[in-house]
# Entry
Amino acid sequence: MNGSELLLGDQQEMRVRRETLGAQVYRLLRDRILRGEIAGGSRLIQGPLSEEIGTSRIPVRDALKRLESDGLVMCDETGRYSVVQFSTEDAEEVYAIRRQLEPFAVELAAKAMTSEAMGEIKSLFNELSKAAKRRQLEKYIDINTNFHMAIYEASGMVRLVRIIRGLYSGVPSLTPIVLEGRMARSQEEHAEVVDRLAARDGAGAARAMDRHIENALAELRKSKRVASESSQPGRAGR
# Structure
């Protein structure tokens, strides 16, 4: 083995360490955004963030780029990052569209469902249950998206799935999953959808999905109302 091969190995090891650290910073920032600990509109400056986290700027920069691709942060023309803001009106709009499209996709999926697709959906449901039991928020959100998309993809409607996927991009902050007990309640609703799909009951599956989305929006409204009231002067701690 010559010197150039040793150097190449060292460079590869450095890239792995950098990517690993970048992934850790990404998960940390993503979790804080999802939980609302970093509010919408907040500036994310690489220098102070790297000092707070205890790392160099490179992993922070890599993490911010990933968060931008997720739609959770935005970068302006000067290269400054900030957390994307989602209003109550944004949530109402997204959920209203979801209630139109997703039950329709589920009903189509029930009719076109293959045994392989059903197996994948059940497997993802089981993974969701494990994440919910262990209170693994980030993992639950990721698997939840895959679970929903697996159902919609079973419909065979490529354009419909693409539209729905777009509604999920960059809106994890509109999910009420972060609320106490919501993961468990969400799983109960998911179980009904899975049962209806397994029975090839398209109409029943569509109704179950519509209730699931309606319940999520109701809890999101409640959480935003509570947050708004607690932030008003004289109401803190009530």
Summary: Residues 1-10, 12-16, 226-238 have pLDDT under 50 and may be disordered.
